Automatic annotation (TrEMBL):
Name the record gives this protein: Ig-like domain-containing protein
A GO molecular-function descriptor: laminin receptor activity
Domain Ig-like: 77-177, 185-283, 294-381, 387-465, 472-558
Statement: the UniProt record of this protein carries the keyword Kinase: no
Pfam families: C2-set_2 (PF08205), ig (PF00047), Ig_3 (PF13927)
Residue ranges of the TM segments: 569-592
Keyword Repeat in annotation: yes
Organism of this sequence: Denticeps clupeoides (denticle herring)
Recorded superkingdom: Eukaryota
């Protein structure tokens, strides 16, 4: 400690003090300033206190007073400024100003950090503030001490002591409080589930906040409501750690006797910490915990399909429960455990179901912790529609003029609806098909379609092929093939199939090409047209014979067409515009093949058609004859020729 310079006179500088009893309220402002009086000088040490008390008892009264703030708050690393204000102007030539620091507490020793008189001033070199403090002279009204880069070691009482030869000694004290904002809190929940059957509070989560000063506080919350220690229900364990930097870290562990409702609760911790002038708070992230509890109910339901079940569907049956973790689940069908089925996430999957899978489905759950067992069941019915059965069996043969009855039935768990169709058109509704006086036009394939109106997706169908048997029917035609050549066509309708033959007048049989068209057969032959032609087409099956003769005259010959037939039916056909007919004949033939004109059996009909190019005579022996008008494709009777 540097000795204070001696004052002029015969002995050491003696200070007279004011009597303590008057309050200097005017010197105390809103900042809580303190007025140091003679009695406060006791802080300077026991020896000074005894001396000053003796002077006070002797009647010495000092007139100088010092005003200082009670406390200066500063963030760690910032700078602090401590003003020391005098109650009256002082003569700088008769005043000594000294600054001291000491730890809080009356018994703590003080250490001088700065000295100033009218001739000299210096900073003590052996203090922790030596290279960080500086003084600002506020004139005769006071001065200020500043400390830069404030650390936790600066959290001390700083004393400003003023000695005046004329006004005595006075001093004031300011305490520096250092603050540091802690880091953002972290919270960590238990990774394993917590069972509600635990008798003692279980660890829920840990909250940690690091590097705060002063020590931060931690409060736990559940759904916004603070949690306090409660024996057997809530327990909060707090541990403080002083870091090497002097800052304080705090971690808090929450233990709780959980309930089932806590599965949806939000937990978090709140950290409160002090800053200069206020207390601040910050919340940690909110967390949920995993609560284990036994199931109290079980429910089995059909998840898909939504409506009725039919064969071929995929059925999902879910087993719902409120247990956590998921208990052991077992599915049963008609009281038999299902072991080879697919169960995913409490859902039983049945693919491509059949009627045999109808019945009672039961779900049983077993809690491995509480050993409780619960079950629920439901009925599932799988609807079906069997393949259609058509009688008589296809193909079915009938004779012309007969009657027949066909039925179409399909076994189903639901009411059915049946329609009969032929050639894509609906004939009738109902499962019975009646045909009367059957003709060749009734031959073909009949389809019966069976559906279930109350459930979409169930559908089946059957078919019946009807063949109408009888003697063959012939339709003949011809067309130019090329220059000097003609193609003769013979269409035969018959069941069973007929043997077809082309015959010249001399009895010679011709080679032909035959094409099957369903139940019909087309035979074609190509001949050179160098003279009049007369060719017969004959068809024969087990039910009879039919024939027709084509007579084609040369272009220079004019003759009346004649027809010859043992049965006595003759039809004459005249084709106009031979060149156009040669191009369109085939098309018109196929369009016309189902249209027929009956021929009388009582005698022969003659038909003559002349043009400027040629005369054609055709003699036809047939049941039906048709004249194709080449230009317009119109059908005309012989009487209209």
């Amino acid at each position: 400690m540097v000795d204070m310079p001696a004052a002029s006179g015969d002995g050491p500088l003696l200070l007279s003090l004011l009597e303590f009893g008057d309050a200097f309220a005017g010197m105390l402002g809103a900042r809580g300033q303190v007025v140091a009086r003679g009695a406060d000088i006791g802080r300077a040490g026991e020896e000074d206190r005894k001396r000053l008390v003796g002077e006070r008892e002797a009647g010495g009264i000092g007139q100088l007073q010092v005003s200082m703030e009670d406390q200066v708050n500063v963030f760690l690393g910032h700078f602090a400024e401590i003003p020391c204000m005098f109650s009256k102007p002082v003569d700088p030539h008769s005043v000594i100003i000294q600054w001291f620091s000491k730890a809080p507490g009356d018994s703590s020793p003080k250490q001088r950090i700065f000295y100033k008189d009218h001739t000299t001033s210096f900073t003590e070199k052996d203090t922790i503030q030596a290279d960080r403090i500086s003084m600002f002279d506020l004139g005769s009204g006071g001065m200020a001490l500043t400390i830069k880069n404030v650390g936790l070691q600066d959290e001390l009482d700083f004393i400003c002591q003023v000695d005046s030869m004329s006004d005595g000694r006075a001093e004031g004290i300011t305490r520096i409080s250092v603050f540091h904002k802690p880091e953002f809190p972290t919270i960590k929940s238990e990774t394993t589930g917590i069972h509600i059957i635990n008798e003692e509070p279980s660890k829920i989560a840990t909250c940690e906040v690091k590097n705060g000063y002063p020590t931060p506080n931690i409060t736990w919350y559940r759904n916004g409501i603070p949690l306090q220690d409660s024996p057997g229900e809530v327990s909060v364990d707090i541990r403080q750690t002083k870091e090497s930097s002097g800052l304080v870290s705090v971690d808090s562990t929450l233990k709780l006797k959980v309930m089932k409702e806590d599965k949806d609760a939000m937990f978090y911790c709140e950290v409160s910490y002090s800053t200069p002038g206020e207390t601040r708070m910050v919340e940690s992230p909110h967390i949920k915990i995993t609560v284990h509890y036994p199931a109290t109910f079980v429910e089995v339901l059909k998840e898909s399909p939504k409506g009725q079940v039919k064969e071929g569907d995929t059925v999902y049956i879910r087993c719902n429960h409120d247990g956590n973790p998921a208990p052991e689940i077992t599915f049963y069908h008609n009281n038999e455990e299902l072991t080879n089925t697919l169960v995913v996430d409490n859902r039983l999957e049945l693919h491509n179901v059949t009627r045999s899978q109808s019945g009672t489905y039961k779900c049983t759950i077993f809690d491995l912790t509480s050993y409780d067992e619960n079950e629920d069941e439901m009925e599932i019915y799988v609807n079906f529609l069997d393949p259609a059965v058509v009688l008589p069996i296809s193909p079915h043969i009938v004779s012309e003029g007969e009657n027949m009855k066909a039925t179409c039935n399909a076994l189903s768990s639901l009411s059915t609806h049946t329609v009969w169709m032929k050639d894509g058109e609906q004939l009738l509704e109902g499962h019975v098909l009646n045909l009367s006086n059957i003709s060749r036009d009734d031959a073909g394939e009949y389809i019966c379609l069976v559906t279930t109106p109350s459930l979409d997706g169930l559908e089946t169908q059957g078919s019946l092929s009807i063949n109408v048997q009888g003697p063959p029917k012939i339709t003949v035609s011809w067309q130019n093939y090329a220059k000097d050549y003609v193609t003769l066509n013979c269409l035969v309708q018959s069941y069973p199939k007929s043997v077809m033959t082309w015959i010249l007048p001399n009895g010679q049989k011709l080679q032909s090409n035959e094409t099957e068209m369903g139940d019909d057969t087309v035979s074609m032959v190509t001949l050179r047209r160098d003279a009049s032609l007369s060719v017969s087409c004959q068809a024969e099956n087990e039910f009879g014979i039919d024939n027709a003769t084509l007579t084609i005259e040369s272009e220079t010959t004019s003759a009346d067409p004649t027809t010859e037939r043992g049965s006595g039916v003759i039809v004459a056909v005249l084709i106009v515009c031979v060149l156009l007919l040669a191009i369109l004949g085939s098309v018109l033939y196929f369009l016309y093949k189902k249209g027929k004109m009956p021929c009388g059996r009582s005698g022969k009909q003659d038909l003559t058609k002349k043009s400027n190019k040629d005369a054609i005579v055709m003699e036809m022996n047939c049941e039906e004859a048709v004249l194709l008008q080449g230009v317009n494709g119109d059908k005309k009777t012989p009487n209209n020729q």
